[in-house]
Amino acid sequence: MTSRSASESTSTWSIAEIAAEFGVTHRTVRHYEELGLLAPERRGTTRVYHRRDRTRLALVLRGKRLGFALPEIARIIDMYDEWPGQERQLRYLLSQIDDRRAALEARRRDVEESLAELAELERRCRQALATGAEWEAEEEATAVGTGGEAGGEAGGEAGGEAGGDRRDPP
After folding, report:
1. Residue 48, SS3?
2. Is-contact 18 52, C-beta < 8 A?
3. CA-CA distance, 26 to 17, in Å (whole number)?
4. What's the pLDDT tens digit per position in 41-71?
5. Integer Cα distance of 75 and 71 in angstroms
6. How many helices (H) and strands (E) does the chain have?
């Protein structure tokens, strides 16, 4: 990270300095430039980044951490340049936050359901090991696949009675 004071409003940074400061690659910085998210000054073949570019890069990276797609991030950032700007931008950002929160909550529910299924499968495995019971792979696969015990166990027992595959887990 470069040591520059906040009062240096005319400061400039090279691509190497800005990439190092934000922990991204030069290619990432150039990619954001290609997308119009950054607009460094050009001095010959050298890119010169100003405070505005640093601010925009920080906003892009924050948006990425929050799970926003680059086009959404671009729209939010570009709204700063539009008039009336702030109110419209904030309303749009709030709608995006609501959408992102809903998507993350749905993913959290999916993860919680998966963890519950794994806990149940682990319990059954430990029970089978403790009691010496035979492992019914078909029964376990059906129970885990359907998320329910009743249909899974019935299917497993029927398969076992009909001479289906009974084997120990690998």
Report:
1. strand
2. no
3. 10
4. 999 999 999 999 999 999 999 999 988 999 9
5. 6
6. 7, 2
